[in-house]
Amino acid sequence: MGDCYAPTVATDLSDIREAGPCQNLTEDRRMTDQLPPCPECASEFAYESGALLVCPMCGHEWSAEATAEGTDEHAEQAEQVVKDAVGNVLADGDNVTVVKDLKVKGAGGGTLKSGTKVRGIRLISDGVGDHDIDAKVPGFGPMQLKSSVVKKSS
């Protein structure tokens, strides 16, 4: 029947022969169009799922616009460099020490003392205000911190 999907249901084979299998489809919806390969595993079996492209081999999802522009989430994250108060580059999983007393706003309140060690930080790009670290602070729980008030520790 050809290489296109016909969205209408034919009542008999004569309808298909007369109309052709691709009559109701526009040029951009044909299955012969090539989708870009997966940026994670380079698989050529990507498919569309709404506004996203999905790789069935590794499960990676990305937007078609990001592929068209030549950018990807991982490329944006690679450009993001977060430095601590003394200029050391921070990475996910690092341990840091708070360098000055901080008044904690919110439900718990209180003061986060200078010298408090925070283990296993996670860098974020969508934090509140200038906050670019997500961490569990001992005695306070989950909290977002600014990189300018911590220093990298071992």
Structure notes:
The chain is an alpha+beta fold and 154 residues long. Helix content is 13%, strand content 25%. It is built from three helices and 13 strands; from the N terminus they run αβββααββββββββββ. It has helices at residues 13-19, 64-69, 73-79, and strands spanning 47-49, 52-54, 61-63, 82-83, 89-90, 95-98, 102-103, 111-112, 117-118, 122-123, 133-137, 141-145, 150-153. The protein has a three-stranded antiparallel beta sheet. The chain is elongated, with a radius of gyration of 26 Å. The N and C termini lie far apart (66 Å).
Which characteristics define this entry?
about 150 residues, 13 strands, about 25% strand
- Rg, nearest Å: 26 Å
Terminal Cα span: 66 Å
Largest sheet: 3 strands, antiparallel
Helix content, binned percent = 10-25%
List low-confidence stretches. Answer: 22-30
N-to-C SSE string, H for helix and E for strand: HEEEHHEEEEEEEEEE
- Strand order, sheet with most strands: 1-2-3
What secondary-structure arrangement, pairings included, does this model have?
Layout: H1 13-19, E1 47-49, E2 52-54, E3 61-63, H2 64-69, H3 73-79, E4 82-83, E5 89-90, E6 95-98, E7 102-103, E8 111-112, E9 117-118, E10 122-123, E11 133-137, E12 141-145, E13 150-153
Antiparallel strand pairs: 1-2, 2-3, 4-5, 6-9, 6-13, 7-8, 10-11, 11-12
Structure described in brief:
This protein has 154 residues and is an alpha+beta fold. It has helices spanning 13-19, 64-69, 73-79; strands at 47-49, 52-54, 61-63, 82-83, 89-90, 95-98, 102-103, 111-112, 117-118, 122-123, 133-137, 141-145, 150-153. It is elongated.
